[in-house]
């Protein structure tokens, strides 16, 4: 049958697909992501059309098909491509022959396609990729109906006119109708042994591209095993290479703070006493003859207890948990370096296989993957081979420890010794560093010391002697002596405070100690290692669903930002501390002050261990808690922070709103969870929630309903951003790749719809009036966008049209902030009207000011480069005024338009256009109009009594139009 249609096969496919075939094939080639140096098997290649992109890119491609007629046409067209006749159920290739296997529009033609999927797995190298493109099931019911009618009725008739064998295309229609849908095919691919299967719909689901993703984790410690667990739990095929064999002994990490325990709980890792875990109540800080007990705080995000377990048991337990989730953990694999493709991207690693004694066996392995996670510790052979070395400007700590049989084994506090005295010195001189005693619960205690800075001042120290001198000062009944020591005294370096960067290079992420994530405050590394592994896994899973290799790399490139957000400021402060407390004199002075004020020590412990309370609601409204230090007020609202009453209330409210936003976008569906969080985690000014809170304060008092409505408004705004970016084809938003850039237009639009749905669900709990506010606002938003898309009607003044658009697109949502806040606080109608009017006018003023700043400001003012709107042809206020003046005969305006209407592709041309517009009086007129709207917003507040909240709204309106240009 295929022999018959071969001569006109490509032409007929173009006709029957209405020209979509070639676009679908381009998506497949992007998903394969092959580069020179790799070998690709293209099954059901037919005449070789699908193989051409690989050959043209210098990739070694084998085009395989069962039809000799197809192959003959292909060989005649492209003699440079290797064409092979092959039965997909009995492939004539050796095991592990190809870096990628792909098949387009051919899997459903194979009688035993399950066997074919297994054969594809056999010939793919470890870490190899699978990409399948096949007809599927449209996701929308109307499209399914139209598509089915086309398949069964129209397609055979069209084929009869264009093809030599119309019956072949009747078979095509029937085979498509009988083929599994997207989810069922994904299940079949998984059943064949592939893992990490993701799919992407094309043309509404008429075609779907399925891709199997593989990850490689180098290092099986807490970071590596945690990453292996999370990747496997999300369906990603993952291999973990560990140099040693479990159980393995490590120096540091027996003491697990609540932050580490949280990660264990998130993973579902059991940690009861029957498994060797000893629970503790908090930290006991000891100095000289005094001690202060600091219980672990009661927090919403962290458990109120810590744990102690030897790394010998903990690491084995964690690796076993990763295995149980589906991760492949290979022990005795010593990584020697990374593998790169022709573009320099990391695509795998080489490893020596070791024997039980840790010696090389002579056997080497190559492991390939879509993404590599380096979690091989402080020395990180992986990072070094990739050219990533430790930074000399970052501290390196040192820790030494020993186990002793001791009655202190049952301690229910983790002890931190802030002063170390020399037991061999009659004067009891102070030793450098800090110490610890952890009760292990098995008859032994872990006793050790750390120095958080290895500058030259400490580089000559004999750390083991310091430990021995310190333990000599301990009471004899504790038995911290040579007779009761069990095992060796071991030491290790502590890579602190981002001492190796960057944390991403193409194809690879750095985790845990390999990334230098040990805290310079306290030397803790386990919690940060596990947390960074979870973040890395989230980025890998999101990248797996991205649209092509370039977009996948963009997603991976967001990982360092996530790490900086979590630890950047904390590590900066800690680096200073590390340099100070290594000095005994400085430590003595600090301890003398701190031990005298237990409340201060409790605060210090929370800072050092990164544990902070969440704000809690009170009868007077939400109170600020320590978590509010993460909240930043937008420009113009500094007045609030300086007020002793309103400041804490507002900051606490914003912290609670942030939590609610995070909760609202969570989803049991992982793809929806990742795409919904994408822009939320990128940040934002949160102006709308703040205005809602202030409206509530003015209207009668902030309450839970006001806070919920503030989250509703921000979610609505967030959803519009997903849609706006599709309509504008914007590549970046808030400094990260837009959702449509990463996952495509359909996913971005559907994510926006999903967030709209979440906002609607939340507002439905706030009563009928709140529902009406949301519905009216949504209608105005859509109409504003619709009118902007269509443009001014015939005879309408473009400037008038533009202000109408802004009123709908921008003003309506800011007005809703005032409306929600005032209504839900119980305000009288006259106060509600004031807040709605203020919101509408200040929202329009804000957008008009942004228009002007586009041609007069700098990046840090507007958040974008000058001239961005000009280059994109956006009809902003200065441009509209300029065109009006040119139409009225203004010669300078005409000359400015000559620059504006030229090709603005080059930076030089854009700079000339920006200068021409900014120097024309149209720009000053635009400022005048923007300030007029701000003045009207301020005037609308006149009926309200003079309060801090009112003055803050006035200051904000003023700041909106007085940003420096």
Characteristic terms for this protein:
FAD/NAD(P)-binding domain, alpha/beta, seven-stranded mixed sheet, 37 helices, Rossmann fold
Descriptive overview:
The chain is an alpha/beta fold and 965 residues long. Among the domains are: 2-212, 3-Layer(aba) Sandwich (Rossmann fold), CATH 3.40.50.150; 234-281 and 291-392 and 497-561, FAD/NAD(P)-binding domain (3-Layer(bba) Sandwich). Helix content is 49%, strand content 17%. It has 37 helices and 32 strands. Strands 3-2-1-4-5-7-6 form a seven-stranded mixed sheet, with helices on both faces. The protein has a seven-stranded mixed sheet with strand order 13-12-21-24-25-20-26, sandwiched between helices. A six-stranded mixed sheet has the order 15-9-8-19-28-27, with helices on one face. Helix 10 (222-233) runs parallel beside helix 16 and helix 36 runs antiparallel to helix 37 (948-960). The chain is globular and about 95 Å long.
Number of separate strands:
32
Q: Report the mean per-residue pLDDT as an integer.
A: 81
**For the CA atoms, what is the radius of gyration?**
32 Å
What structural category do the secondary elements indicate?
Answer: alpha/beta
The name of the CATH architecture of the domain at 234-281 and 291-392 and 497-561 is 3-Layer(bba) Sandwich
Query: CATH homologous superfamily of the domain at 234-281 and 291-392 and 497-561 - what is it?
Result: FAD/NAD(P)-binding domain
- Termini separation comes to 70 Å
Which percent range fits the helix content?
40-55%
Helical element count?
37
Oligomer: single chain
CATH class of the domain at 234-281 and 291-392 and 497-561: Alpha Beta
| Main β sheet profile | 7 strands, mixed
The 3D shape can be described as globular
CATH topology of the domain at 234-281 and 291-392 and 497-561: FAD/NAD(P)-binding domain
Residue runs with pLDDT of under 50 for 5 or more positions = 613-631, 858-864
Instruction: Provide the spatial order of strands within the biggest beta sheet.
Output: 3-2-1-4-5-7-6
User: DSSP strand (E) fraction?
Assistant: 15-25%
């Amino acid at each position: 049958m295929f022999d018959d249609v071969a001569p006109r096969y490509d032409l007929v496919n173009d006709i029957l697909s209405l020209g979509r075939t070639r676009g679908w094939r381009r998506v497949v080639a992007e998903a394969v992501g092959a580069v020179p140096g790799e070998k690709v098997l293209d099954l059901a290649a037919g005449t070789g059309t699908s193989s051409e992109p690989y050959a043209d890119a210098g990739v070694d491609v084998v085009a395989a098909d069962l039809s000799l007629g197809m192959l003959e046409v292909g060989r005649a067209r492209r003699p440079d491509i290797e064409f092979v006749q092959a039965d997909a159920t009995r492939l004539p290739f050796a095991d592990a022959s190809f870096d990628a296997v792909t098949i387009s529009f051919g899997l459903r033609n194979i009688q035993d396609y399950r066997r074919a999927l297994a054969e594809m797995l056999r010939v793919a190298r470890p870490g190899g990729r699978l990409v399948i493109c096949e007809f599927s099931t449209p996701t929308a019911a109307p499209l399914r109906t139209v598509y089915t009618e086309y398949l069964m009725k129209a397609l055979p008739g069209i084929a009869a006119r264009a093809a030599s064998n119309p019956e072949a295309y009747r078979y095509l229609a029937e085979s498509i109708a009988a083929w599994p849908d997207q989810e069922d095919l994904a299940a079949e691919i998984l059943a064949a042994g592939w893992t990490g299967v993701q799919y992407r719909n094309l043309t509404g689901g008429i075609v779907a591209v399925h891709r199997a993703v593989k990850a490689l984790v180098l290092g099986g410690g807490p970071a590596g095993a945690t990453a292996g667990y999370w990747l496997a739990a999300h369906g990603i095929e993952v291999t973990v290479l560990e140099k040693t064999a479990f159980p393995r002994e490590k120096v540091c990490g027996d003491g697990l703070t609540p932050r580490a325990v949280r990660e264990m709980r998130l993973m579902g890792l059991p940690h009861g006493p029957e498994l060797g875990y000893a629970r503790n109540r908090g930290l006991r800080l000891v100095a000289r003859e005094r001690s202060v007990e600091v219980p672990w705080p009661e927090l919403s995000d962290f458990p109120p207890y810590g744990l102690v377990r030897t790394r010998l048991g903990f690491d084995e337990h964690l690796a076993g948990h990763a295995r149980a989730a589906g991760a492949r953990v290979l022990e005795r694999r010593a990584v020697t370096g990374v593998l790169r493709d022709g573009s320099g991207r990391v695509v795998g690693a080489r490893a020596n296989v070791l024997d039980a004694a840790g010696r090389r066996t002579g056997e080497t392995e190559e492991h390939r993957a879509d993404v590599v996670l380096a979690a091989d510790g402080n020395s990180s052979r992986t990072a070094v081979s990739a050219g990533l070395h430790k930074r000399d400007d970052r501290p390196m700590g040192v820790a030494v420890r020993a186990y002793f049989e001791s009655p202190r084994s049952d301690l229910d506090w983790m002890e931190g010794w802030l002063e170390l005295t020399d037991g061999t010195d009659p004067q009891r001189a102070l030793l450098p560093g800090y110490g610890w005693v952890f009760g292990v619960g098995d008859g032994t205690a872990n006793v050790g010391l750390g120095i958080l800075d290895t500058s030259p001042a400490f580089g000559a120290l004999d750390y083991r002697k310091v430990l021995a001198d310190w333990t000599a000062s301990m009471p004899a009944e504790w038995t911290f002596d040579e007779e009761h020591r069990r095992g060796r005294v071991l030491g290790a370096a502590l890579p602190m405070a981002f001492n190796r960067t960057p944390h991403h290079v193409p194809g690879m992420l750095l985790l845990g100690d390999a990334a230098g994530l040990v805290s310079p405050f306290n030397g803790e590394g386990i919690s940060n290692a596990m947390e960074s592994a979870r973040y890395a896994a989230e980025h890998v899973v999101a990248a797996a669903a991205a649209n092509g290799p370039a977009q996948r790399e963009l997603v991976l490139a967001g990982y360092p930002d996530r790490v900086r957000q979590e630890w950047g400021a904390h590590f900066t402060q800690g680096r200073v501390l590390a340099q100070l407390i290594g000095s005994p004199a400085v430590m003595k002075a600090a301890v003398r002050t701190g031990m005298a004020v237990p409340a201060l020590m409790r605060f210090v412990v929370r800072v050092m261990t990164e544990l902070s309370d969440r704000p809690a609601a009170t009868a007077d409204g939400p109170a600020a808690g320590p978590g509010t230090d993460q909240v930043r007020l937008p420009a113009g609202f500094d007045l609030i922070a300086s007020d002793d009453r309103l400041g804490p209330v507002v900051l606490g409210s914003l912290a609670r709103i942030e939590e609610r936003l995070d909760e609202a976008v969570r989803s049991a569906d992982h793809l929806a969870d990742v795409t919904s969080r994408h822009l939320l985690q990128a940040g934002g000014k949160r102006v709308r929630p703040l205005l809602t809170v202030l409206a509530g304060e003015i209207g009668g008092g902030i309450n839970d309903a006001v806070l919920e409505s503030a989250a509703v408004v921000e979610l609505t705004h967030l959803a519009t951003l997903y849609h706006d970016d599709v309509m504008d084809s914007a590549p970046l938003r808030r400094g990260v790749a837009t959702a449509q850039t990463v996952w495509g237009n359909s996913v971005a639009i559907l994510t926006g719809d999903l967030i709209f749905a979440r906002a609607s669900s939340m507002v439905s709990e706030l009563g009928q009036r709140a529902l009406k506010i949301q519905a009216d606002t949504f209608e105005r938003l859509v109409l504003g966008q619709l009118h902007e898309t269509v443009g001014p009607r015939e005879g309408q003044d473009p400037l008038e049209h533009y202000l109408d658009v802004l009123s709908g697109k921008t003003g309506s949502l800011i007005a809703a902030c005032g409306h929600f806040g005032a209504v839900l606080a119980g305000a009288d109608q006259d106060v509600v009207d004031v807040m709605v009017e203020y919101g509408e006018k200040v929202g329009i003023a804000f957008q008009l000011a942004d228009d002007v700043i586009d041609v007069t400001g700098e990046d840090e003012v507007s958040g974008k480069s000058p001239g961005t709107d000009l280059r994109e042809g956006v009809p902003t206020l200065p441009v509209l005024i300029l065109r009006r003046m040119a139409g009225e005969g203004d010669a300078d305006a005409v000359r400015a338009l000559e620059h504006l209407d030229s090709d603005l592709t080059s930076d030089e041309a854009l700079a000339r256009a920006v200068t021409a517009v900014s120097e024309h009086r149209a720009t000053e007129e635009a400022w005048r109009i923007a300030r007029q709207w701000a003045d009207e917003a301020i005037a609308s507040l006149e009926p309200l009594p003079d309060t801090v909240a009112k003055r803050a709204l006035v200051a904000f309106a003023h700041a909106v139009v007085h940003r420096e240009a």
